[in-house]
Structure formats: structure tokens, C-alpha cells
Amino acid sequence: MSRLNNSIEKRRYPRFLMDLPLEYRLIDIFRAHGALVVNASEAGLLIKSVENIPIGANLDILVLFPKEFELVNFEVLAEVVWNNTYLKESWKGYQCGLNFTSIKEQDRWKLRQLLRGRFNLDGIWYNL
After folding, report:
1. How far apart are CA 62 and CA 88, in angstroms?
2. Residue range of the domain that includes 29
3. Is 115 strand, coil or helix?
4. What is the mean pLDDT of residues 32-59?
5. Which of 11, 20, 24, 117 has the most crowded CB, counting CB atoms within 10 A?
């Protein structure tokens, strides 16, 4: 697992680079969308999406990750606090900054374990 920045951290919660799939739904809308987690902290996520998610949107998010030989997840409610167009080669999408608005204690525990590298995620973390 790699910290996003080796310099002095100004954030309350450090961010860790990762590459994990997630599913999100706008609150009160049944249709699910997929995206990728770029980095995470105990307070929020940076995601990449093909959809332009509006600032202020409230999302129900399910982040998937492997734990030994099974796929597990944690669920959070989050708000989009910023978004930018993201262009890379021939791909156009969006990056969005999300702040958690609600997380159950058992899911917070899973997130903390994930960030501390306590789950075997070989091949998931970026090495800087």
C-alpha cells in the first residue's frame, strides 16, 4: 500500500492510492453505475467515472475488494464535493472527490483494515 504523497500531510486523514471497483447509486434512484476508486482515506474517496456526477449529489456507494478467496465490500453514503473532466489517451471520463456522510461502524472497520493493508490485496495497490 502506498501513501499518496510522501511530503508533509496537511489532511486530517492521509490518502492511499488504490485501484478498486465500486458501484454507486444516486440516492432515491435505483439504477447503479460503476466506477473506480483512485485513492481513499477514512473521510472520502477519489473516483473515476464515465458519468458526470454533479457536485452536491448524494451517493450510496459499495466498494468491492478481495479478502483471501472471496470478494467483500464496504458501503458508505457520500457527497460529491468536486468533479473534473479526466482525459487520458482516447478515454474521456470524470474524476470526483467524495466526502463520506455516513458509514456503519462495521464498514468503517473494514475501511480502516483496508487502508492499513491488513487485507491481502496483492496487485491492487500502486507502488510509488
Report:
1. 25
2. 7-115
3. helix
4. 95
5. 24
- Cell 473494514, located at residue: 110
Q: Confirm whether 30 is domain-assigned.
A: yes
Q: Which residues contact 116 (CB under 8 A, 6 or more apart)?
A: 1
Is 14 part of a structural domain of the chain? yes
CATH number at residue 78: 2.40.10.220
* Cα–Cα nearest to 74, from 83, 86, 61, 92: 61
Does any domain span residue 47?
A: yes
Q: Note the pLDDT tens digit of each residue in 47-95.
A: 999 999 999 999 999 999 887 777 788 999 999 999 999 888 888 899 9
Is 67 within the bounds of a domain? yes
